[in-house]
Amino acid sequence: MDKTPEFDCYSTDDEVFHDGGKDEALQDLDDDGRLAVGAEFRLGVTKTPDPASFFDVNWLIEEMQVNASDNHGECAEDYLVDLTQDQIKELDGVVKAWLQANAEVHFYSAEGIETFLVTQEDIDSFRHACAQQGKGGAA
Predict the structure, then answer these.
(1) How far apart are the first and last CA of the chain?
(2) Where does this protein have compositionally biased stretches of type Basic and acidic residues (predicted)?
């Protein structure tokens, strides 16, 4: 049994997605003077990335090795080369746990994107809802 996606973001330009759904997409189209039969908008489902996914433990170790070498020359050539896989895994876990606890993400990607065309029924429903709320939606 197919489950209908819970759309929670929209785009009216296929570039930037905003929080909201069909109603907000129609409002944006109306605000821009583009609410017409056949106008396109997209709906998607937000996916907030795990901040730990931006971290690469090997990059951190390499940067530390480069900095040590830059600051201390040949004496630091072998710095951190003897780390075991368990030590590297432990460092990775510590940093990723810190990121998950402290580095809140305020952006998302849109997935499951579907394109919709505005219908006359959409416009009529939108205008009716706006008239009831006493805002926008002027023809």
Answers:
(1) 40
(2) 15-24
**Prediction pTM value:** 0.73
Return per-residue pLDDT of the chain as tens, 139 residues.
556 679 999 999 989 999 999 999 999 999 999 999 999 999 999 999 999 999 999 999 999 999 999 999 999 999 999 999 999 999 999 999 999 999 999 999 999 999 999 999 999 999 999 888 876 555 4
Question: How many CB atoms are closer than 10 A to CB 39?
Answer: 19
Sequence-ordered list of residues with C-beta below 8 angstroms from that of 119, at least 6 positions apart, any chain = 37
Residues 5-34: b if buried by 16+ CB within 10 A, e if exposed: eebebbbbeeeebeebebebbbbbbbeeee
- Decide: residue 135, CB within 10 A, 0-12 exposed, 13-18 middle, 19+ buried: exposed
Q: Which residues lie across from 115 on neighbouring strands?
A: 42
The domain limits of the chain are 9-48+107-133, 51-102
